[in-house]
Write a structure and sequence with these properties.
Layout (H helix, E strand, L loop, with lengths): L3 E2 L8 E7 L7 E4 L7 E4 L1 H4 L11 E7 L5 E2 L1 H7 L17 H10 L11 E6 L2 H8 L4 H9 L2 E7 L7 H4 L6 H6 L2 H25 L3 E5 L4 H8 L6 E9 L19 H4 L4
Helix pairs in contact: 3-8, 4-5, 4-9
Bound molecules: flavin mononucleotide (FMN).
Flavin mononucleotide binds next to β9.
């Protein structure tokens, strides 16, 4: 559990503005036994208190809590970073796909360029969906992905601009401009979805999960397997579980070195 340390000098003032908006498309899909191509189960707009466009309003929820804490405590930071490990194999305890929705509900508040939020996720719940994706992973990534309690395909939506009226109302006309610029859209979407992928890994760890990211795959093959209907473009697969498999000495590899801040951070 992530706990927080309140700032001793916090100001107890909350500023809230509420306007209405709408986003029709789900951002997290679950592929289950009944839908090999993916069925929408994640209407995340409801979680944000959003409403449907039918009522004619635009909704946007902004909350700035000036009493917010200034720093996570050491245990919480450890859960997210130094104490967390990449995990290859897991105990068989199932992972409820709802956790992906909960993690997304957190990460969506983290920033992207112009707030474009291009990350899209597909939880592979059925064996058939999992196998269709595993066929396009590198040989060393296949067995562990088949065995993981849950696998999720992380992708970007090159048609993210269709949501810009809601996501970036401050950039009037950008949606129309990007309509004719597919290469620019692709670069924007890819860059920002990769940023969101980092947020996702941390959000899943914050949910108490072990994460094993897989970038060694054929993205076009995975796209053909699970993105044929929505045109999303694969970035990675994330394998999820509750704990490393205690019977597998390679469940987590020995921790490799890290650069020191002095090597990676300059002060000028
Ligand atoms: C985007 C990304 C792609 C990765 N791709 C693979 C992969 O294809 N196969 C694999 O075994 N590990 C993969 N990893 C795992 C990394 O090797 C691992 O996270 C890193 O070495 C740190 O390990 P640690 O968390 O145990 O310190 C990937 C990690 C990330 C973030």
């Amino acid at each position: 559990m992530v706990s927080i340390v309140p700032s001793p000098a916090s100001h107890h003032r909350t500023v809230s503005t509420v306007r209405r908006h709408s986003v029709r498309s789900a951002t997290v899909l679950t592929v289950d036994e009944h839908s090999s191509a993916g069925s929408s189960v994640g209407d995340l707009t409801e979680a944000a208190g959003c409403v449907r466009p039918a009522d004619g309003f635009d909704l946007d929820v902004t909350q700035t809590d000036l009493a917010a804490p200034t720093r996570l405590d050491a245990a919480s930071l450890d859960l997210l970073f130094a104490g967390a490990r990449t995990t290859n194999t897991f105990t068989p305890e199932p992972v409820d796909p709802d956790v992906v929705h909960r993690a997304y509900d957190q990460l969506r508040w983290a920033p992207t360029s112009m707030n474009i939020q291009p990350l899209r996720l597909t939880a592979l719940v059925s064996r058939a969906a999992r196998e269709s994706v595993v066929a396009h992973l590198g040989p060393r990534n296949q067995a562990k992905t088949l065995a993981a309690p849950l696998s999720v395909v992380a992708a970007y939506d090159p048609a993210f601009h269709t949501h810009l009226d809601v996501l970036a109302p401050h950039r009037e006309g950008l949606r129309e401009q990007l309509e004719g610029q597919p290469e620019r859209r692709d670069a924007m979407a890819r860059t920002n979805a990769l940023i969101q992928l980092g947020y996702l890994i941390v959000a899943l760890r914050a949910e108490g999960l072990q994460v094993g990211p897989i970038g060694g795959l054929d993205p076009l093959g995975v796209d053909a397997a699970v993105h044929a209907e929505n045109g999303w473009r694969t970035l990675a697969v994330l394998n999820l579980g509750h704990a490393p498999d205690p019977a597998d000495p390679t469940a987590q590899r020995p921790r490799a070195g890290r650069l020191e801040a002095a090597q990676a951070v300059l002060t000028r």
